[in-house]
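This week, look over our next protein:
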Amino acid sequence: MKNRKMIIPAIIAKTQIELDEYLSKVKDFSELVQLDIMDGIFVPNSSLDFDFHVSCSNIKFEAHLMITNPIEWIEKNWWKVDTIIVHFESCKDPKNIINFVKNKGKKIGFAISPETAVHKVKPYLDDIDQLLIMTVNPGFYGGKFLLETLSKITEARKMKPNLDIEVDGGVTPDTIKLIDDAGANMFVSGSYILKSDGVKEAIDSLRKPIQ
């Protein structure tokens, strides 16, 4: 697999102060950070549902949109991030969203929740930059890792060998080797990294099993 392996901290934040605190923890140890955007409707939690700002010049950002109206969010906030990941379940017109984001000069990814089959996104895999496979039910830090989702990673990797395949949910030193073996190359970790006493040590402990 040609794709480079990356460990990506994920931030859930209710206020700008909380966002800034988390960014200050990870900014020296990460090149890519995921911002979890939640509207309290698509998932039963809210995060970064205000006019936030990010100002770390050394980090790229991806927005994981767990919201019911992704187009509205993208119109207002596209310039804040480098990659926009839209939940396939919230897409009324997937092609339109792909074109909309690409026309802004940004990368586009689709995310699929545990109950969504990979074959549903197959028609779009040639047009997106990455596929995010949820391995927990989305919405909260610390969800239970769902082993049955591993087969979806393998299935997606067979469909599109060079695609960036990202996994989000329950990524710890105990699960990351399974995820890596299944075929993912981008590993999102929220609570394990951000709730740890040492961010660098947490990231290193994730990186070690997949080197």
